[in-house]
Automatic annotation (TrEMBL):
This is Metabotropic glutamate receptor 5. Residues 941-980 are annotated as: Disordered. It comes from the Eukaryota. The gene is GRM5. The chain crosses the membrane at residues 581-604, 616-639, 645-666, 687-714, 740-759, 771-793, 799-826. The lineage of its organism: Eukaryota, Metazoa, Chordata, Craniata, Vertebrata. It holds the Pfam family 7tm_3. Coiled coil: none annotated. It is found in: Cell membrane. The keyword S-adenosyl-L-methionine does not apply. It comes from Macaca mulatta (Rhesus macaque). Its main location: membrane.
Length: 980
């Protein structure tokens, strides 16, 4: 199993190397010892965005890199020289560069584990040569623990790997709250407090200056994300509002930082304070973007310990950073380290493999003759150069040293427990068990380099103590960090006079001002009550409380002071309004016209023009028209229950009366004409009498009445309030769409039926001109109601629309059907005679038997010829030839000599019927025309049944018509209605 793990790690290492062939060769610092401690320091800056895939690290770093490497080396020297700490045991180290980048740190951690595993196998005698003898190869000693790395995100990645092999890890600046979870990071410890305490310190500062509305920025990664989450949670509990929270990579490009700054400016001038839970390079990116965008002085940055008092963050951009307040872990400078560090020279410092590179970078010169000579620098480094120039100690130096001492004291306690009374490493400690070492480390407590007690809680965290720093301009072009306060376990102390020279200079960063009249505080989703937007109530709402607008009930409106509601005056159509006046005038004129027509029809009820119009049905139509006009008054009157009943009855019934009678009339005409076109005489159509027509019309009307009554039961009419808009209240009847559509739908069916029959009878002979008037009435009515439907259902003027639609329909029926008759009665009495309303060129039938003789059958073609009579030229000559042909055909059925004087002939058939015709000679264009042809079909059982074909020339029309009327057997003959 162990060999399998070794193989897996080696393969992983080779894979990493293979995937990074372009990456630079990693340099390692070694210090020999009995026990080796690993360390990960960010000797170089992290790779830039375009070099991430190559894992090519950036420039060398002094404070986060070289100083920490030297602190590790010098601290181990001090420990080894202390006879009371790990006596007779020498601590060594292996220092690797993490470049503040997860991938590089993992690569270096794999090297730690590889060496540890191989050393473990050697201790157990599992490493042998091929011939079976013991191997003389001795690898490096195993790593018992790791110090670092600095970044929380990187530390999490490294811990996920180290804990698989029980290697304890002590961090000196990884403060993420996630690392406190021992279920996930069992072998992780740190000498710095969790970010939860730092977030608490930042919230306390925000509260102190009443900054209730701030923006938030954090570095992408575990450090920034967990810290910002803690800050936002605590802010919400304290009533502090976050305008918006943004995240960004610390090595992001200029465009990303510029875009972020533009977003921050969108919250100005309210959110002037920006809480930045960021790594140092993220803050520097923000400062650079401020300069590019000219935003210096627009924001006050409140930074976390990732910024602290680092000069590399503000170098060159001090003007943009002025006024910034930062949180710094309480860690006084370590004097003995400066005494050691400032004496270092590249000529004598050989154990730090990066020192020469750093020296050249620090002084921008070239070390001639040295292995790491950098030819890009033209100036040669001279011996007068010293590190004392502009020296600033790493702000976390004390924590680095405390982490190293923690590992030493943990090993010391372990040695005292496993090797009592023994100086040095006993067999019980070989190899060192990581689990036992972790237990010993958790119990460690000692006095740190700053004089504070170093100990660990159950999560492996240390107590929190912070200093509050303020970056100020101390003089002309001179800027520095000033200690203006402290935070120790929940207690904040601030020197306000040092931060703000005057109280008026205190930056104001508040969420909202008090709201004006008619406005409420609207709290944004996810934010607390301190942060609101003043939003005016809607026009129909009043201010219920400072957070709530309450809508007035329908029919009421807010008062002037917007503290309550008053009732809205109810509106309804009044007789004096323009639209009702127009509708009433129109209806009144229509009523007068209808009454006038009715009186005329009653007075002249026995005249042919009235009798031929089926006067009984006309009276029903006139009653429907009158009722339609009366509907206008019910519709416009102030709504009451009785009027609502009348409206529903009138609107449905008035069209039904008119169109039921019209359907009956048009259906009668259509049936008569259909029978007249048949070659064989049939029985008389049924239900053709006036009484039958009335019954049919009343049945159709009763159907509509039934629909109206059913709707009364389903939806009893009553008054109600209608709200076409929130500021309008109308008193109307409670007629629903169903109550309107159902009666109108039935009326529409009647209209369509009328239109259908009117269309079928549109080409009847001249005397049937009433059918044409009916057709025109129906076409116009269809147009009116097609226009009515969208206007009624798509507008708020339903009552007026209904008034005019009903009145227009009534007017069309009155004008098209009755005005022409009244005109004849009053203005053209000479046309009001029976001959004008009887059959002229149509067959009249009263034949009960459907059989016919062959002669009679052939004679039907004569009728068609007479229908086309009146043509001239070729047509007349054609007719004469056809008549002569039919004459010869008829003679074929007649014995010779049967035609007597006068040209009359009679033919008898075997079925008891006879055919008689007469011929009259008349010279016209040299042709013989048939002037009269009578065919008598006699049956033995009823000799009175006849069929008469009577085509007359215009000169003899009046006499022929009179005779035909007498034979019709019905008052008014066929006339305009086609009665026979």
């Amino acid at each position: 199993m162990v060999l399998l793990l070794i193989l897996s790690v080696l393969l992983l290492k080779e894979d990493v190397r293979g995937s990074a062939q372009s990456s630079e060769r990693r340099v390692v610092a070694h210090m020999p010892g009995d026990i080796i401690i690993g360390a990960l320091f960010s000797v170089h800056h992290q790779p830039t965005v375009d070099k991430v895939h190559e894992r090519k690290c950036g420039a060398v770093r002094e404070q986060y890199g070289i100083q920490r490497v030297e602190a590790m080396l010098h601290t181990l020297e001090r420990i080894n020289s202390d006879p009371t700490l790990l006596p007779n045991i020498t601590l060594g180290c292996e220092i690797r560069d993490s470049c503040w980048h997860s991938a590089v740190a993992l690569e270096q951690s794999i090297e730690f584990i590889r060496d540890s595993l191989i050393s473990s196998e050697e201790e157990e005698g599992l490493v042998r040569c091929v011939d079976g003898s013991s191997s003389s190869f001795r690898s490096k000693k195993p790593i018992v623990g790791v110090i670092g790395p600095g970044s929380s995100s990187v530390a999490i990645q490294v811990q996920n790997l180290l804990q698989l092999f029980n290697i304890p890890q002590i961090a000196y600046s990884a403060t993420s709250m996630d690392l406190s979870d021992k279920t996930l990071f069992k072998y992780f410890m740190r000498v710095v407090p969790s970010d939860a305490q730092q977030a608490r310190a930042m919230v306390d500062i925000v509260k102190r200056y009443n900054w209730t509305y701030v923006s938030a920025v954090h570095t992408e990664g575990n450090y920034g994300e967990s810290g910002m989450e803690a800050f936002k949670d605590m802010s919400a509990k304290e009533g502090i509002c976050i305008a918006h929270s943004y995240k960004i990579y610390s090595n992001a490009g200029e465009q990303s930082f510029d875009k972020l700054l533009k977003k921050l400016t969108s919250h100005l001038p309210k959110a002037r304070v920006v809480a930045c839970f960021c790594e140092g390079m993220t803050v520097r990116g923000l400062l650079m973007a401020m300069r590019r965008l000219g935003l210096a002085g627009e924001f006050l940055l409140l930074g976390s310990d990732g910024w602290a008092d680092r000069y590399d963050v503000t170098d060159g951009y001090q003007r943009e950073a002025v006024g910034g307040i930062t949180i710094k872990l309480q860690s006084p400078d370590v004097k003995w380290f400066d005494d050691y560090y400032l004496k270092l020279r590249p000529e004598t410092n050989h154990r730090n493999p990066w020192f020469q590179e750093f020296w050249q970078h620090r002084f921008q010169c070239r070390l001639e003759g040295f292995p790491q000579e950098n030819s890009k620098y033209n100036k040669t480094c001279d011996s007068s150069l010293t590190l004392k120039t502009h020296h600033v100690q790493d702000s976390k130096m004390g924590f680095v040293i405390n982490a190293i001492y923690s590992m030493a004291y943990g090993l010391h306690n372990m040695q005292m427990s496993l090797c009592p009374g023994y100086a040095g490493l006993c067999d019980a400690m070989k190899p060192i068990d990581g689990r036992k070492l972790l237990e010993s480390l958790m119990k460690t407590n000692f006095t740190g380099v700053s004089g504070d007690m170093i100990l660990f809680d159950e999560n492996g965290d240390s107590p929190g103590r912070y200093e509050i720093m303020n970056f100020k301009e101390m003089g002309k072009d001179y800027f520095d960090y000033i200690n203006v306060g402290s935070w120790d376990n929940g207690e904040l102390k601030m020197d306000d006079d040092e931060v703000w020279s005057k109280k008026s200079n205190i930056i104001r960063s508040v969420c909202s001002e008090p709201c004006e009249k008619g406005q409420i505080k609207v709290i944004r989703k996810g934010e607390v009550s301190c942060c609101w937007t003043c939003t005016p109530c809607k026009e129909n709402e009043y201010v219920f409380d400072e957070y709530t607008c309450k809508a007035c009930q329908l029919g009421s409106w807010p008062t002037d002071d917007l503290t309550g509601c008053d009732l809205i005056p109810v509106q309804y159509l009044r007789w004096g309004d323009p639209e009702p006046i127009a509708a009433v005038v129109f209806a009144c004129l229509g009523l007068l016209a209808t009454l006038f027509v009715t009186v005329v029809f009653i007075i002249y009820r026995d005249t042919p023009v009235v009798k031929s119009s089926s006067r009984e049905l006309c009276y029903i139509i006139l009653a429907g028209i009158c009722l339609g006009y009366l509907c206008t008054f019910c519709l416009i009157a102030k709504p009451k229950q009785i009027y609502c009943y009348l409206q529903r009855i009138g609107i449905g019934l008035s069209p039904a009366m008119s169109y039921s009678a019209l359907v009956t009339k048009t259906n009668r005409i259509a049936r008569i004409l259909a029978g007249s076109k048949k070659k064989i005489c049939t029985k008389k159509p049924r239900f053709m009498s006036a009484c039958a027509q009335l019954v049919i019309a009343f049945i159709l009307i009763c159907i509509q009445l039934g629909i109206i009554v059913a709707l009364f039961i389903m939806e009893p009419p009553d008054i109600m309030h209608d709200y076409p808009s929130i500021r309008e209240v109308y008193l109307i009847c409670n007629t629903t769409n169903l109550g309107v559509v159902t009666p109108l739908g039935y009326n529409g069916l009647l209209i369509l039926s009328c239109t259908f029959y009117a269309f079928k009878t549109r080409n009847v002979p001249a005397n049937f001109n009433e059918a044409k008037y009916i057709a025109f009435t129906m076409y116009t009515t269809c147009i009116i109601w097609l226009a009515f439907v969208p206007i009624y259902f798509g507008s708020n003027y339903k009552i007026i629309t209904m008034c005019f639609s009903v009145s227009l329909s009534a007017t069309v029926a009155l004008g098209c059907m009755f005005v022409p008759k009244v005109y004849i009665i009053l203005a053209k009495p000479e046309r009001n005679v029976r001959s004008a309303f009887t059959t002229s060129t149509v067959v009249r039938m009263h034949v009960g038997d459907g059989k016919s003789s062959s002669a009679a059958s052939r004679s039907s073609s004569l009728v068609n010829l007479w229908k086309r009579r009146g043509s001239s030229g070729e047509t007349l000559r054609y007719k004469d030839r056809r008549l002569a042909q039919h004459k010869s055909e008829i003679e074929c059925f007649t014995p010779k000599g049967s035609m007597g004087n006068g040209g009359r002939a009679t033919m008898s058939s075997s079925n008891g019927k006879s055919v008689t015709w007469a011929q009259n000679e008349k010279s016209s264009r040299g042709q013989h025309l048939w002037q009269r042809l009578s065919i008598h079909i006699n049956k033995k059982e009823n000799p009175n049944q006849t069929a008469v074909i009577k085509p007359f020339p215009k000169s003899t029309e009046s006499r022929g018509l009179g005779a035909g009327a007498g034979a019709g057997g019905s008052a008014g003959g066929m006339g305009a209605t086609g009665g026979a």
